[in-house]
Design goal:
Number of domains: 1
Number of helices: 5
Largest sheet: 6 strands, antiparallel
CATH superfamily: RNA polymerase II/Efflux pump adaptor protein, barrel-sandwich hybrid domain
CATH class: Mainly Beta
Strand content: 25-35%
CATH topology: OB fold (Dihydrolipoamide Acetyltransferase, E2P)
């Protein structure tokens, strides 16, 4: 499945894992810790087109709401329906069952521009 070592990361803490021409998207373990107790995930509509850096969904916790940005451009082809019943899945499994959405990439080079796990970890040190 997806783990930190085989994902790429945006500086805004979203991760992407590519399966063919589709990027599975979630938030990093670091991000879910910062957001803390997630109580609601406002997922986008399937079929919506997004560009890199565009707000694509919102995660609400007991303390705040956080915008989640698309790490790649393309069409949203799936959302994680399990989060409607159990939004805390993002806290428990941020790199597995807590994925947010899937984007059919229109520009695969977007994925290559993301940070590998070591590069992402280095941004957290700053």
């Amino acid at each position: 499945m997806y783990n930190q070592e085989n994902c790429r990361f945006a500086k805004t803490h979203e991760w992407a894992f590519v399966e063919g021409d589709v990027a599975v998207v979630g938030i990093s373990d670091h991000a879910q810790e910062e957001i803390s107790d997630i109580v609601f995930v406002d997922l986008p509509k399937v079929g919506r087109t997004v560009k890199v850096g565009e707000n694509c969904c919102v995660i609400e916790s007991v303390k705040s709401a956080s915008e989640i940005y698309a790490p790649v451009s393309g069409e949203i082809v799936a959302v994680n329906e399990a989060l409607a019943a159990d939004p805390a899945l993002v806290n428990r499994e941020p790199h597995a069952g807590g994925w947010l959405l899937k984007i059919k990439m229109t520009h695969p080079e977007d994925f290559n521009a993301l940070l590998d796990f070591e590069g992402y970890k280095a941004t957290l040190q700053k």
